[in-house]
Every structure is written in C-alpha cells, then in structure tokens.
Amino acid sequence: MKKKYSLRKFFNDIHLWLGIASGIVLFIVCLSGTLYTFHAEVEEMLEPEKYRVEAPKNTAPMLAEALLSKVQEETGGTASAISIPRDPHRPYRITIKKSPKDRRGTAYYVDPYTAEIKGTSKGPASEFFMTMFRLHRWLLMEQNTGRIIVGISTIIFAVLLITGMVLWFPKRLKNIKQGLKVKTNGNWKRLNHDLHNTLGFYTFPLLLVMCLTGLCWSFGWYRDGLSSVMGAKVFGGRGAKPTQIEQVVPDTPARSVAQLIQLTDEHLPYTGDYNIYLPSDPQSAAVVYKYQTGFFALSAYDKAEFNPYNGHLLKLDKFSDKALNEKIVATIKPLHTGEIFGTFSKILYFISCLIATSLPVTGTIIWINKLKKKAAKKKKAVVS
C-alpha cells in the first residue's frame, strides 16, 4: 500500500531540493562571512605596532588641533574627522580627504603623544578581507547581479532554516532529547546526521537573524517593507547631513576638539570613544558620536550636534531614548555582523556562521546516503 503524502514529507522535499539548489552559493556566502567576522582583530594582530602606542607617565596627549595640522601638512589633504579612544594606549584615527570627490577619505592612525603617523587603515590582509567582503555580498560578480543571487539564496536559506526546525521536531515528543545532542559514539553516518540536525537547531535563532537583516542589503523592496513594518527607516542615518547653522558671526573662532568633547560629556556623562566629524563648511554643525566600549558593550552610539562657534547644543540623539522599534532598526548592521554585543556576540556569530558553512556539506552527505540506501533496497528487492 502506497504511503500517504504527508505535510512532513512536503517540508522534507522543500528542505531537500532547495538545499541542493542553493548549496554551493550558501557555502560560499557563509564561509566568506565566517572569515570576515574578525577581520579587524586579524589585521590588528598582523600589525600590532600600528594599533598600540606608548603612553608616557604624567604626559597628556597633544592637542587635537596640533595633530590635525601635522597630519594635514604631511598628507596634503583636509581632515574631515578624528576618532579619539578612551584607551590611552590606542592611536587616534584621523580621516583625510584629498579632493572633494574623495567621499570616504583615508584613515591615518596617529600617535597622540608624538604626532607620528603609524600607518593607514590598509594592511597586509586588507585585500584578502575586501575579497571576502565582495564574495559575501556579490560573489565577486557585478554588484547588481551578485546582490540578487545572494539575496535569493538568503531567502532560500531562511526557508531552509524554518523547514529544518519543523523537521527537527520528532514525531514523538519523548524522543526530543535525541535532537539536543550529538551522538559521538555512533557510526559516521549518525554523527554526520547529528551534526546537521542538532547544530542546525542550536544556531537557528542567530542564523535567522543574519538572514532577515542581510536581505536589507540585497533588495530595496525588502528594506522599504521592513521600514514600514518597523515604523522607522532602515539605514535612515546614511548620508544624513549635519544640522545647518542659521547665523554665523564672522571671524568667530570655532570650538576646539577638547571643548567639543567636554560639551558632549555634559550631555552624555559616561566613559567611551569619540568620533568627531569636523564642519565641512561654515554653516555646518560639529557632529560628535560617542560609543560605549568593552567585551559586552552594545554596538550603538549617541550623537550630539553643536554650533561650533558658541558651543550651543543643536541636536541630541540618545540611543536609550529611542523606542524599541527604532533601536532594532538602528542596529540592523551590528545585528547582521555580530557586533551587537561586542566581542561576546562576535564569537557566537563566528561559531554559528562556521556551522552554517557546514550545513550544505552535511546535508548533501545525508541526501547521498539516503540515495544509496534506496538503491540498495531496490537491488535487494529485485534479487529476492
């Protein structure tokens, strides 16, 4: 008697054939994402001398203006931003633009005690990690084409995760414990099955978050739809221009970087790192971003804008004051990259993404084993 085609079989077929169709792309995207997770830490490990400075006792860092002047003179460009860490053994980072067309500029690491330029943000592994980034986002293809392929594969991966969770639940609840552990003393087929089934279960929440956030870079319709659902614009802060000053008093000196930091601390009284964007024209406000740091620090910033001439606060954007939906939307990028809770969450994401890389492999092996088993049964039936 022929078995009835059940709902579970339907989910199994979806999981199987979508997995086979997208396996190679998902393997590449997950592997490149895994390798990119700790790119900053690896680059620092390769050039530790560039990211550490000697902090002489009883010696304060040089004035930021002196450092900016020195770097501008040596590079022949104009400073657009300066990053000041709370750690006295870390260099300052000064962004220099050499032409109006230079949108991002070049980041220089500078010793705040000697004004020595220790290097730029490019290092021996920069090209490798940029290749991993392009592989992860566009498969090294033309951006529009690669983005669509990665986006479709990401949607498929989300479906695979959901159908996989349905298949993970056993038909009998008393057998649920079997899906919570990897049986290491079984044969290699059972071990492979458990690595796919059990590890997929434990990484499901983080992998689903990676999928749902990653789609924001692939499809405009998805990004707009998520913005509507969340009631806040995804990537809304991108390209935001500083507040414009209504009236500028001629020949009025601008506040120093140290004064801007002091003003920021009055409104944001906690220890953290600073990223200061200098006014690009006389009518633009000075913008200060302040971040909390640490192993478990939330990857979010507070933003203050000041009139650079009289120091008046023009705008204060505190993350803690945002509604929950706005907080989620504001942290789409760190939710995708794993930086949301600092190094702690990056470790979890790295492990999860490494497991995700293995899922197409272990899943394919399960499928091949089932094909061999079916072939053996047919052969045995013919012989008998």
TrEMBL record:
<dbReference type="Pfam" id="PF03929">
    <property type="entry name" value="PepSY_TM"/>
</dbReference>
<feature type="transmembrane region" description="Helical">
    <location>
        <begin position="148"/>
        <end position="169"/>
    </location>
</feature>
<feature type="transmembrane region" description="Helical">
    <location>
        <begin position="199"/>
        <end position="222"/>
    </location>
</feature>
<keyword id="KW-0472">Membrane</keyword>
<keyword id="KW-0812">Transmembrane</keyword>
<feature type="transmembrane region" description="Helical">
    <location>
        <begin position="16"/>
        <end position="38"/>
    </location>
</feature>
<keyword id="KW-1133">Transmembrane helix</keyword>
<dbReference type="InterPro" id="IPR005625">
    <property type="entry name" value="PepSY-ass_TM"/>
</dbReference>
<feature type="transmembrane region" description="Helical">
    <location>
        <begin position="347"/>
        <end position="368"/>
    </location>
</feature>
<protein>
    <submittedName>
        <fullName>PepSY-associated TM helix domain-containing protein</fullName>
    </submittedName>
</protein>
